[in-house]
Amino acid sequence: MDESHIPLRLLPRDSSMPRDENLGPIWLAVSTTFLFLLLVTTALRLWCRIGRRNVGWDDTTIAIAAVMAAVQYSFGAMQLPYGNGRHRIYLSEHDYQMINLWGWYGQLFYFTSMTFLKVSICCLVLRIKSERVLRIIIYTIIAGVVVTNMGVVVLLFEECQPAGFWRGKAAKCWPNKIRIYWIYATIAHSVVTDLVLSLIPLTVIWKVKIPSKRKAMITCLMSLGLIATGFGIARAASLGVSEDDLSWTFCIVAIWSNLELFLGILAANLALSRAIYAFFHDKAVATTKGISNPSSSGYLSSRLRGITPGHRRMTSETRSSNSDIPLEPGIKKTTEFTWREDGNGQQSSSASNDDRGEVENSRL
């Protein structure tokens, strides 16, 4: 048999050759776990915000980011049957080309998802506190995020003619250093903006008159994004300009990239975990006590004997616009309605007002 047709794994291994290892299962386990968590938390966040009729731009953009992340994950999964995570020397030319093809599509959705994630975090910060100077800072950050991340998308389309670096010699391409160095700049910008976006809400939280333990808990939740930033730094360290073994090196980059993106979305959702918990807790208590709110059509359930909607009034300084975080103690007014129906169909109702000074619990 001609030695050139013998599979490489059957030939004696040269000591200079890398071991035939496979990082694909690691990518699959890590990515699948965090994708599941981000989809669940995103669904709970949207359920809570829709239930409270308090959907904002931060919710819309995080939903888009989650969808884009799921699509990007699917392209990564399509690379695995072709041997992504193994060294190029053990792959056929066709398999290597298919890995780079799906990787190219995956990068398009990765950087688009990252853009919407950062915009969502910026919008959330503006919901917590919105001042003129802060708005200028946030809008500047958003502009930088769009330019850096979407700039990579533009480069992916323009660096080769026809588009797609996976075509190899069939395409005329710029040096890949241009794209890699742009990604380095994108990561550097991301690290700086993550620090700024984490510090801004923390300065607000520590001015709120709430127990120190609660401040510490909220601080930890809102600092989770910095862990994702650390994975972004690891992604930068694993990048390289060499194109000799992309099936191996880019799989390592993909693991760090997914940790950065998926954990970033997860952290953005967990920052609202108190509000999510309160929503479902209050709903469970209301169901247990036989209390119901008016339905979307405006009618009440005829099976219930009583309803108790509450109306709250707080000073304008208490809560920033559309925010889930009360910033100062306020006066809460509660109006209680009781509807009763006896066996003869007789109906009666009563109402009572209760004004009392009360420190509102902070819900993030």
Automatic annotation (TrEMBL):
<feature type="compositionally biased region" description="Basic and acidic residues">
    <location>
        <begin position="353"/>
        <end position="364"/>
    </location>
</feature>
<feature type="transmembrane region" description="Helical">
    <location>
        <begin position="133"/>
        <end position="157"/>
    </location>
</feature>
<feature type="transmembrane region" description="Helical">
    <location>
        <begin position="181"/>
        <end position="204"/>
    </location>
</feature>
<feature type="transmembrane region" description="Helical">
    <location>
        <begin position="60"/>
        <end position="82"/>
    </location>
</feature>
<feature type="transmembrane region" description="Helical">
    <location>
        <begin position="246"/>
        <end position="272"/>
    </location>
</feature>
<feature type="domain" description="Rhodopsin">
    <location>
        <begin position="44"/>
        <end position="276"/>
    </location>
</feature>
<feature type="region of interest" description="Disordered">
    <location>
        <begin position="302"/>
        <end position="364"/>
    </location>
</feature>
<keyword id="KW-1133">Transmembrane helix</keyword>
<feature type="transmembrane region" description="Helical">
    <location>
        <begin position="102"/>
        <end position="126"/>
    </location>
</feature>
<feature type="transmembrane region" description="Helical">
    <location>
        <begin position="26"/>
        <end position="48"/>
    </location>
</feature>
<dbReference type="Pfam" id="PF20684">
    <property type="entry name" value="Fung_rhodopsin"/>
</dbReference>
<keyword id="KW-0472">Membrane</keyword>
<dbReference type="InterPro" id="IPR052337">
    <property type="entry name" value="SAT4-like"/>
</dbReference>
<keyword id="KW-0812">Transmembrane</keyword>
<dbReference type="GO" id="GO:0016020">
    <property type="term" value="C:membrane"/>
</dbReference>
<feature type="compositionally biased region" description="Basic and acidic residues">
    <location>
        <begin position="330"/>
        <end position="343"/>
    </location>
</feature>
<comment type="similarity">
    <text>Belongs to the SAT4 family.</text>
</comment>
<protein>
    <submittedName>
        <fullName>Integral membrane protein</fullName>
    </submittedName>
</protein>
<feature type="transmembrane region" description="Helical">
    <location>
        <begin position="216"/>
        <end position="234"/>
    </location>
</feature>
<dbReference type="InterPro" id="IPR049326">
    <property type="entry name" value="Rhodopsin_dom_fungi"/>
</dbReference>
